[in-house]
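Retro notes
What went well: the complex prediction finally ran end to end.
Inputs used:
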Amino acid sequence: MGAPRTLFEKIWTEHVVVAETADTPAVLYVDLHLIHEVTTPQAFTLLRDKGLLVRRPDLTLATMDHSTPTTPVSTLKDLLVAGEGAAAQIRQMEANCAEFGVELHGFDSAHRGIVHVIGPELGATQPGKTIVCGDSHTSTHGAFGAFAFGIGTTEVGHVLATQCLLQRKPKTLGIDVSGSFAPGVGAKDLILAIIGQIGVDGGTGHVIEYHGEAISAMGMDERMTVCNMSIEAGARAGMMAPDEKTFEYLQGRLHSPTGGEWDSAVSRWRSLTSDAGASFDRSVSISANSLEPMVTFGTNPGMVVGVNEPVPDGGGDASFRKALEYMQVESGKPLTDTAVDVVFIGSCTNSRLSDLQQAADVMQGRKVADGVRMLVVPGSQQIKKAAEEIGLNKVFRDAGAEWRESGCSMCLGMNGDTVGKGQLSVSTSNRNFVGRQGIGARTVLASPMTAAASAIEGRVADPRPYLQQVN
Amino acid sequence: MQAITRIQSRTIVLPTRDIDTDQILPARFLTTTSREGLGAYLFNDLRFDANGQARPDFVLNQAAADGCAVLVGGNNFGCGSSREHAPWALLDYGIRAVISTEIADIFRNNSLKNGLIPIIVDASTHEFLLTNPGVEVEIDVVNSTLTLPGGTVVEFPIDGFARYCLVEGIDQLGYLQQQMDDIQTFEEQRPWTP
Ligand code: SF4
């Protein structure tokens, strides 16, 4: 037996084509390449210019999500709601995928959706795989015990042409999450608290492995929420060991192995845990027991407090002060008095069925406050369909919210869905950067339950009182 | 790619911490299928007001910024998105090196692949640069050094392979393609297939 190894090390070692040396990075094999319309056009142009082909179209999966309208599209006019640039980008994606033989989940696909939602949903995301995408939230797929990370467009070109990447081995950061969540508190609150604790650069250069009883107790949707936001702590990737829940989720999905292959895959996947005694370059621990619903008050995801806690004062730091000025919030006061203009439920962080269900539980029989716009955008067409089958669309619509087709939507506001200048949005997405949701938009990141409660009250609100009434 | 060995320039200073890729290039400018021309939108919402008028107080709009190729940012520069459009925009504008105490992983990777030099310096060098905007610095890529006014030389970390590619003007894709035999063997011999 060799030295005990971490989950990350096992996957890394298995994918090294050419070992790293002092002078050269490793050549790392990529098992799944996810692509979308925004970060690929220049990569396809490069292939065309160099006369290259997509080396493994069978390991490449494409969707349209970022600049895609969330209103139904059947004509060119429908497509143009997102603007001419967005429409051209979408048309280019269709042409590129057709030309290079890549499977695209476009407007005619029942499986279209946010790239990080459909990978798992199709069963293409599997334990032990290396997964990349020209998108930083590729870390989401780590919830299945994959090593998944975001790359830039030049690297997208490298993977399309060679199925490999040049990589230096990152360091590892182990995060142990003990205890269990109180009602009304969950995965989103945990990851916001973690980023608050280690900082938005706390994971730079590292791959995070989350473990501990609170992680094991989570369902796959929640695990994805946690891994998704690893990048907001600067981490290269986030990952979790696969277990029975992972296998159960994957069984029977479109791209999942079947028959004897399924059995051998599962037995291989069972070995994908960090060995007892394996060491991480750094370790952090946090307890889920005392967590509260968390909200961000500033302009990065590390500026976060419990929903009833006072906003800290930042000790005179200029960047901190600037963030508070932009957000129009005051130190020493909780966010719960802050008026809300928009509530967005969606994004690859919180747009899966259980997220929508949690928000709907809070909304059930209630109304969106006067003057508040609430937009609910399922992560994929499949989730939309599943939600409609159990009547969630009706709950939201009856409350006065808009119910849309899938896509990134207000998460980054490049498809025409934006938050107005100066408006405050409570959003289940992952970035509260200045202008992320629209020019001058002020974003408060929160869980689906907190967002729903805030929609009802028209101000940032604690969701817990609503849950007691539900039960 | 063009070889880059040396950059000499005055600095532009943007002292804010955690300057994210959404600030460097807002998402609404990503609806492009080319990599050219993005410099016009660099730091767009900091640079221009709602009517598209230049904000006089923003550093890029000041005469002293003209011709500067080195940007000094606050800690943790380039965090956020993987959009390579951010380094493309900086390069298109004329920025050729970015200096901070910490530079986000994906942004750093993307920069190196495009010939934008990410330079990580210690806190006191950073402090000097932040408090002395517009000083003339020299970056020697071959020796990975940054020379400050007065001749102080600071070494900066840079991956040896990335540096080699920058200095020789080598395209990393070409290097990867040379490994094709090994890639093929790997695919044939691996115990399971994805
Ligand atoms: S939902 Fe937001 S974070 Fe996720 S892939 Fe889309 S734009 Fe990126």
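What we learned: Chain A touches chain B through 75 residues (CB under 8 Å).
What to try next: split runs per interface for comparison.
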